[in-house]
Amino acid sequence: MSLISEILNYNEQFVAKEEYKEFLTTKFPDKKMVVLTCMDARLVELLPKAMNLHNGDAKIIKNAGAIVSHPFGSIMRSIIVAVYELDADEVFVIGHYDCGMTGLNSDKVIASAKKRGISDDVITTLGHSGIDLSSWLTGFDHAREGIEKSVNIIRNHPLLPKNLPVHGLIIDPQTGRLDLIEDGYKDAE
């Protein structure tokens, strides 16, 4: 059985048994917070549990490394929508130790893409189009560096209020321990 068939079969039973009812809530986060975190599979259940978050408590945005790579990209758009349309009053940027973005090597990623069928012509065309794959596919030396950079971009964004607390934390993906890197209350005016 394929993975999609397995998921759809399970989902049919989930809906038929009305198991969704325990998750019913509104689109507004009860704890008035938005969380930007990494897509790491170890954090799917661990991070909410470690933060005492339940369904409906927070808007959670995930990407590789919890990185805001562009001040006007989709991550920032999601944060801005959460603040202005969904009543989020605080932002939490949460990276983790042992992140796959630590020391990410763009040449290695590009080589893997080529092995899976992406042609040299595509790579060359992207380069001629002004897309710098080397910097776009580069991570950071330490999770702290990525968190500080993302917090700084959010905190100084021209479309966000200066009194918006933007916190930076790193979670241990083994124990769930949270280390505070940036206290957003200290920098909010």
TrEMBL record:
CDD domains documented for this protein: beta_CA_cladeD
Pfam family, one: Pro_CA
Gene3D superfamilies referenced in this protein's UniProt entry, alphabetically: Carbonic anhydrase
E.C. number(s) listed in UniProt: 4.2.1.1
Catalyses which reaction(s): hydrogencarbonate + H(+) = CO2 + H2O
Cofactor list: Zn(2+)
SUPFAM superfamilies: beta-carbonic anhydrase, cab
Record key words, sorted: Metal-binding, Zinc
Family: Belongs to the beta-class carbonic anhydrase family.
Name the record gives this protein: carbonic anhydrase
Organism expressing this protein natively: Paenibacillus chondroitinus
Lineage: Bacteria, Bacillati, Bacillota, Bacilli, Bacillales
